[in-house]
Design a protein that fits this description.
InterPro entries: LysR_subst-bd. It contains eight helices and ten strands. By secondary structure, it is α/β, with parallel strands linked by helices.
């Protein structure tokens, strides 16, 4: 027997946000929840390679992903992107690797190394350095495990190296390979809730005219003139009404 469905739950407005590993949308999610308590925000963990497909089939409304990598796996059609920040690319290797001798690496340093390229492709590198390992692990997490076993090296955005940190591994920045751009990706047209979330990410205040809060009512010409006069009186540039009346009375005497 099926359990009864809460009518409030079934009728709730849902906004679905995809996010890729290594990104941290927590602050924006919290603010969105404070401003829209009647909207259920679902967080959907999504691989970079699956982001465009999730947006195409409308299983998510907007995505925090890596660009342009997410667009290389499916044709999203008309869409919008906003770049948020750049991530350094690092090489993850065993703690005892000779690659840990320096503070940073170049492509030339990786020329003789075996490199793993996971199928979830957190980073697209068209001209790949080193020797590609024939086996392609399913995920970045799997690739990290293989690095720990001594199979090779993997290039990833720095946040993923931190996410999958292990005591037996280390990483170094690679200076002359593509970096990763984290950004927002969503299809056209932009929904109202997507516009709200974009505004939050951009730092728009709740009282902004683009937000859901009502803008302050427009003042009449009379009210504007009165406010202007009050401001000038406070600054001492014109006499107050009482002083002006007293001066007029003294002159009439």
């Amino acid at each position: 027997m099926n359990s009864p469905v809460d009518p409030d739950e079934s009728s709730a407005v849902v906004f679905r946000l995809a996010f890729v590993p290594g990104t941290t949308p927590g602050k924006w999610v919290r603010i969105f929840g404070e401003r829209h308590p009647n909207v259920r925000l679902d967080l959907v963990p999504t691989a970079v390679a699956d982001t465009a497909a999730a947006l195409i089939n409308r299983s998510v409304d907007i995505a925090i992903t890596r660009l342009p990598d997410a667009l290389s796996h499916a044709d999203l059609g008309p869409h919008h992107i906003i770049a948020l920040y750049e991530e350094t690319t690092v090489a993850v290797m065993g703690k005892d690797s000779v690659l840990t001798a320096g503070d940073e690496l170049s492509r030339a340093d990786l020329a003789d190394e075996n490199l793993l390229w996971p199928l979830d492709e957190p980073l697209v590198v068209t001209e790949r350095p080193g020797n590609a390992v024939d086996h392609r692990p399913e995920t970045t997490a799997d690739a990290i495990e293989l690095v720990a076993s001594g199979m090779g090296v993997v290039l990833v955005p720095q946040s993923l190296a931190r996410l999958h940190h292990r005591r037996d591994l280390d990483y170094r920045p690679v200076t002359d390979v593509p970096t990763s751009t984290v950004g927002l990706l969503w299809p056209q047209p932009t929904s109202d809730l997507a516009a709200e979330f974009i505004g939050i990410v951009r730092g728009r205040k709740a009282t902004s005219s683009r937000g859901t809060s009502e803008p302050p009512p427009k003042r009449s010409a009379k009210e504007k003139a009165a406010a202007k006069r009050a401001s000038r009186e406070a600054a001492g540039t014109i006499p107050t009404r009482g002083k002006a009346k007293a001066r007029k009375t003294r002159r009439s005497r």
